[in-house]
Design brief:
The structure holds two protein chains of two kinds.
Chain A: E1 5-7, E2 10-13, H1 17-28, E3 33-37, E4 51-53, H2 57-67, H3 71-78, E5 79-85, E6 95-100, H4 102-114, E7 119-123, E8 126-133, E9 146-153, E10 158-160, E11 163-166, E12 175-178, E13 181-183, H5 196-202, E14 208-219, E15 229-231, E16 256-260, H6 263-271, H7 294-300, E17 308-313, E18 320-327, H8 332-339, E19 350-352, E20 355-361, E21 376-377, E22 379-381, H9 391-409, H10 423-433, H11 458-469, H12 474-496, E23 498-499, H13 503-511, E24 521-522, H14 523-528, H15 544-558, H16 564-579, H17 581-599, H18 616-625, H19 630-634, H20 641-657
Parallel strand pairs in A: 1-10, 2-3, 2-11, 3-7, 9-21, 11-22
Antiparallel strand pairs in A: 4-6, 5-6, 8-9, 9-10, 12-13, 12-20, 14-18, 14-19, 14-20, 15-16, 16-17, 17-18, 23-24
Chain B: E1 6-9, E2 19-24, H1 28-35, E3 36-37, E4 52-59, E5 65-74, E6 85-90, H2 94-106, E7 110-111, H3 116-123, H4 132-153, H5 157-181, H6 191-212, H7 216-221, E8 223-228, H8 235-243, E9 261-267, E10 270-276, H9 286-301, E11 304-310, H10 317-328, E12 333-339, H11 349-358, H12 363-369, E13 370-375, H13 383-395, E14 398-400, E15 405-407, H14 408-431, H15 437-453, H16 461-469
Parallel strand pairs in B: 1-7, 8-10, 8-11, 11-12, 12-13
Antiparallel strand pairs in B: 1-2, 2-6, 3-4, 4-5, 5-6, 9-10, 14-15
The chains are: A alpha+beta, B alpha/beta.
């Protein structure tokens, strides 16, 4: 039988948020890439909430952008409301969140993909991964080695390739539940992928079932907004991408609306619990606790009299409104009844029902921190398939998996970010090191060193890495260098400029309600006082503008023209770094400690049965996870500090005897 | 790689009170020099030759002499660990050694992990590679032993208190974190004030725990032990049995011990100052009344209270008075002796426990806070158990291994101190008006430090707590 047979470098399976980033990264690095999707109309689809970012997720988008990802740029083009969350808290937890025009977001991303050199978009369901056994390398006898050679579509076409990035999202053997009604589809009624799971299992990849859910969408015309509180966007909009000029995105914004459930809502839910597929035991998959269905909230937090409900527009050119906070898998009639108890929704008309979705996914412990399968060369995996949830989490993994697939083909160093330098590092380390039993969402509390991992300094942390990989341009790199230069210069100046306890200074301090000086103090010390900041001390910082001019001249000489935007960013950094210096230094020291253990690599071929004195539980866990470093080993639950000591001594012995 | 300096008691524990504290690492000599003085009051260790031994005193921060010692200086690489090493030969008994070790740690050393000297010796190439397995075995087994020992000793009240402190702290962190993750659902308005109040309580509790550890006063003056009981219950006989001579006047007439008698004994290196008091009963007899008042005062100042109950007599008002006293001093170490004067048994543990319950001390608290022993001052039975119990209370933190003595008590104290300091940092952040997310940093340090005491690691506690206590999101 004649068949189509093509030869490319990389195949990306799935064109959701992970797939788009993976495919763009590979193509931009010059590799011939095909991205497969069951529906070209659904590229970068947002099947659940209509927003990008939010607490800690906003950080992910920033980091993604610093490394050369697309999500930040795409939401800057298509947002309809923007808000910096936690603005009253410390800078580490400020987090950007934007409401997206879903259709526009999808369309804009599709345009980027379609116009990307080296990238082909293909509508097809991939059914099978093609592979071959390869000879074990030295010391790899313990590990089964397979190499990926291509993929096969449902219609029989074969694409030979060097690497595959799996970004199947929630499509594998998906089924959607709305009460008693079950359909075997992916999100939004799209076709599910029903063949690939078998192929994965044949390759020795065990699968498990996770579930998630989404609330109903309402017709805007049926909602009474006068009974709700209007929620506005920020007056001054901050872009996600470091490359977006803030002046160009200031625009009129759409509103969201806040209302609440009440006892009546809860009574309806309680009375119908037996009809909920979760409580009736029809759903087998494990759901996430952080975005519980309204049924879950009512059952688990029975003492709460009301829950918040956010009504958010799905876009500017549609009447559909998303009902945030009330996802459900109740039958249609119960849904309508419960929604209609909420003030403003009394006469609501549902456009799309809420539903729960169940899908196949893998356990992240099968992956290396590069997101490559430990036992299959050339097979990478990203997004919800890895047991995560969320667009931003997916996109972050997609970028890393894409980069590493490319690095492997190009025979360059792979990219593994650590917990001390990025949220993306935390995300991936958690996914591949911990036994996650539910879809994993990024949370700010998961980042131990979050004072260093701020959304405002993602470029300072990661842009250089993006440049080394080849996703960040020379020009962007120069801008970064100029920024670093200016920050350093200005910080030094503020630390070196001493103020004497003279009358002018004392008067200034007194008039600002600050205590007077006993001995000389630097400008930096004044910034540290709670009542001051960088702007507020400008009254006694006489040399500021003159010396800044000098610095700028120097920076322009060495690097590139200094824009207004860049200057604002410099001031922000200087202020934060000085104001929180004590805390920041403490965390930096902790990170150094942490990184020492990360640097102690464990040989891939280490046979844990040869390591004496390990406790049985630790031995089993280490064999199962095969950590890449002693640091990673120490984070595996069931491995004790004594086991780590034993391991360290063994490795020392090992390196001596080699 | 630069390594820190470690210290531990390097000899087996014995009643002789002689032992060696070993300090090893780059700063060993500097640290020892801070606390060691020659009889002439000079600090000389930095300038002495390797492999020399020096006579002098260990002095504390207030320049008080703690012990008369001999100090050997062994410079790298010619020492067991191949690092700079100082060994302090002490004479003052286990508690003095513990105090010196504490001082060494305060001066910059860190308490050694089980097997750490040997591990360093190995890593520095001092031990043949063929011994690697033995070293690993040792670390593994010693660690298990240490875990077990500290677990055993922590079955009691300390562990319960630490757990409840940790629960309180993680709850607050989880609240902050859930608000940060979901600012639109959970508000932190008014939280700093609430947290500050809460921290004052936590602060007090941790401070109280730190105070229960053996302090300098106890070492200098011995452990102040008071024997309480109604008249003629056998207190003086007990004192005599413990001291080993007829010191107190013992007769069958109630109230013979008119004054407070003091005697000092040495129990495995612990000095116990035994104070026998007159029975606590309201009396018109002026001489005895003074004794009664003193007894109360002594009980309040005591480190250890022994309550002697006469099992042949029903509990009376006197006993109720004493139980009240014990209740008021419940944070102290308490031992209840059911003393049988070879007659009928009318009172048992349950009766006493019920009496406590009447005074508002529930069964669990009672069992956690008191050791109950059966004794007979007539035939001396139960005395060995009493000695054991006292030893466990004050030496329980000392674990003996093949080549090192690990004082876990000191470890606990250090951990508590760290938690205490961290809580203070949070209070400072609140006072300075820092944003709420900064609180979590030091709260987490406190939580981790307390976890060290009960051997619990952090892992996913926080995320679990957030999900179980707070209703999040979408």
């Amino acid at each position: 039988m004649p068949e189509i047979r093509e030869k490319v470098d990389v195949c990306v399976i799935g064109a959701g948020h992970a797939g788009c980033e993976a495919a763009l990264a590979c193509a931009r690095l010059g590799l011939e890439t095909v991205i497969f999707t069951v529906s070209v109309d659904s590229i970068a689809l947002m099947p659940c909430n209509p927003n990008v970012g939010g607490s800690s997720k906003g950080h992910l988008v920033r980091e993604l952008d610093a490394l050369g990802g697309e999500m930040g740029k795409n939401i800057d083009k298509t947002f309809i409301q923007s808000k910096m969350l936690n603005i009253s808290k410390g800078p580490a937890v400020h987090s950007l969140r934007a409401q997206a025009d879903k259709a526009e977001y999808s369309r804009a991303m599709r345009k980027v993909l379609e116009n990307q050199e080296h990238l082909t978009v293909k509508q097809a369901e991939v059914c099978e991964l093609l592979s071959e056994e390869i000879a074990a390398g030295k010391g790899e006898e313990n590990i089964r080695r397979i190499r990926i050679t291509g993929v096969k579509t449902f219609t029989g076409a074969i694409y030979e390739c060097k690497a595959v990035v799996l970004c199947t999202g929630t499509y594998l053997n998906a089924r959607c539940l709305c009460g008693e009604a079950i359909t075997y589809t992916g999100p939004n009624g799209l076709q599910a992928a029903t063949h690939l799971s078998d192929s994965l299992e044949k390759l020795g990849i065990p699968l498990r079932r996770f579930k998630t859910g989404t609330p109903a969408r309402m017709d805007k015309r049926s909602i009474d907004f006068t009974k709700m509180e209007e929620q506005f966007g920020d007056e001054r909009i901050v872009p996600f991408s470091f490359s977006t000029n803030p002046e160009e995105i200031q625009k009129e914004q759409a509103s969201c609306w806040l209302t609440y459930t009440n006892e009546e809502t809860h009574n309806i839910i309680r009375a119908n619990l037996d009809r909920s597929p979760i409580y009736a035991g029809i759903i087998e998959g494990t759901g996430p606790r952080y975005c519980p269905s309204i049924e879950d909230k009512v059952v688990k937090f029975a003492e709460k009299e009301r829950h918040q409900v956010f009504i958010e527009p799905e876009g500017l050119h549609t009447n559909e409104m998303y009902v945030g906070g009330m996802s459900s898998s109740m039958p249609e009639d119960v849904q309508l009844a419960m929604y209609r108890t909420v003030p403003g929704l009394e006469h609501c008309k549902i456009v799309r029902n809420a539903y729960a979705i169940e899908y196949d996914c893998i356990n992240g412990k099968q992956l290396d921190p590069t997101l490559e399968f430990k036992h299959i060369k050339g097979l990478f995996s990203a997004g919800q398939l890895n047991g995560s949830s969320g667009y931003e989490e997916a996109a972050s993994q997609g970028l890393i998996a894409g980069i590493n697939a490319a690095m492997e083909i190009l025979e360059k160093d792979t990219l593994v970010l650590d917990r001390g330098e990025s949220y993306i590092g935390v995300l991936i380390d958690d996914l591949v090191t911990k036994d996650n039993r539910e879809p994993y969402r990024m949370m700010t509390s998961r980042a131990e060193y979050r004072l260093l991992l701020r959304q405002d300094n993602a470029d300072l942390r990661l842009r250089e890495k993006g440049y080394q990989i080849g996703l960040i341009s020379e020009k962007q790199m120069k801008e970064l260098q100029a920024k670093k230069f200016l920050i350093e210069k200005e910080m030094q100046r503020l630390k070196d400029t001493l103020l004497g306890a003279n009358k002018e200074v004392q008067d200034f301090l007194e008039s600002n309600g600050s205590s007077t000086l006993k001995t000389a103090a630097s400008l930096a010390e004044l910034i540290c006082r709670p009542e001051f900041d960088y702007e507020k001390i400008s009254g006694i910082d006489k040399n500021r503008s003159v010396s800044m001019e000098e610095f700028i001249q120097e920076a322009e000489e060495y690097f590139c023209p200094v824009s207004r935007k860049l200057l604002d960013e410099v001031k922000e950094q200087v202020e934060i770094e000085i104001k929180y210096e004590g805390y920041i230094l403490r965390q930096k020291r902790q990170v150094e400690q942490y990184q020492k253990m990360e640097e102690k690599k464990i040989p891939k071929d280490l046979d844990y049965d040869d390591v004496p004195s390990l406790r049985i539980e630790a031995r089993q866990k280490l064999k199962e996870f095969r950590p890449v470093s002693v640091g990673q080993a120490s984070r595996i639950s069931g491995v004790s500090p004594a086991d780590i000591s034993v391991l360290l001594i063994y490795l020392e012995h090992h390196s001596h005897s080699r | 790689m630069k390594t820190d300096t470690i210290a531990a008691v390097a000899t087996a524990m014995s009643d002789s009170g002689i032992g060696i504290i070993r300090i090893s690492g780059e700063e060993a000599i500097e640290i020892a020099d801070k606390i060691f003085q020659t009889p002439g009051g000079k600090h000389i260790l930095k300038n002495v030759q390797s492999h020399t031994i020096h006579y002098g005193y260990v002095v504390d921060d207030e320049l008080q002499k703690l012990d008369e010692v001999m100090v050997s200086v062994l410079k790298a690489p010619r020492s067991f660990t191949a690092e700079d090493t100082v060994e302090i030969n002490c004479h003052g008994g286990i508690l003095v050694m513990q105090k010196i070790l504490e001082l060494v740690c305060k001066s910059g050393a860190r308490l050694a992990e089980p097997g750490e000297f040997t591990k360093r010796a190995f890593l520095n190439g001092r031990i043949d590679l063929s011994k690697a397995e033995a070293v690993m075995d040792m670390i593994s087994s010693q660690n298990e032993y240490a875990m077990k020992s500290s677990f055993d000793q922590l079955q009691g009240k300390l562990s319960v208190q630490i757990k409840s402190l940790r629960d309180e702290i993680i709850y607050e962190i989880a609240f902050i974190e859930s608000a940060l993750d979901d600012p639109e659902h959970i508000s932190l308005d008014g939280f700093p004030e609430r947290l500050s109040e809460k921290l004052q309580q936590i602060d007090k509790k941790i401070g109280g725990l730190i105070a229960t550890f053996i302090n300098g006063k106890m070492i200098k003056n011995g452990i102040s032990t008071v024997i309480l009981g109604k008249p003629n219950v056998g207190k003086s006989s007990l004192l005599n049995l413990m001291v080993g001579e007829e010191r107190a006047i013992v007769t069958d007439i109630a109230g013979t011990t008119r004054d407070v008698l003091q005697e000092s004994i040495n129990l495995h290196g612990i000095h116990l100052n035994l104070i026998d008091t007159a029975g606590i009963r309201d009396t018109e007899d002026t001489v005895e009344k003074i004794g009664v008042e003193r007894a109360r005062k002594y009980a309040e100042q005591a480190d250890l209270i022994l309550y002697v109950v006469d099992t042949s007599e029903k509990l009376d008002d006197n006993d109720r008075e004493i139980i009240g006293l014990l209740k008021n001093n419940i944070e102290k170490n308490g031992i209840i002796l059911l003393n049988k004067n070879d007659l009928d048994t009318l009172v048992d543990e349950t009766d006493i426990q019920k009496e406590f319950e009447k005074q508002g001390v529930n069964c669990d608290t009672f069992k956690r806070n008191f050791v109950i022993l059966k004794t007979s001052t007539k035939d001396g039975s139960g005395m060995q158990e009493l000695e054991e119990a006292v030893k466990n209370m004050f030496l329980s933190g000392i674990i003996q291994n093949k080549d090192e003595v690990i004082i876990t008590n000191l470890r606990h104290k250090e951990a508590l101190q760290e938690a205490y300091d961290s809580i203070h940092l949070v209070q400072k952040s609140i006072a300075d008006g820092m944003p709420e997310d900064f609180y979590s940093i030091d709260l987490m340090s406190a939580y981790k430090a307390l976890g060290l005491i009960i051997g619990e690691e952090v892992e996913d506690d926080l995320v679990e707590e957030i999900f179980s206590k707070f209703c999040m999101g979408k």
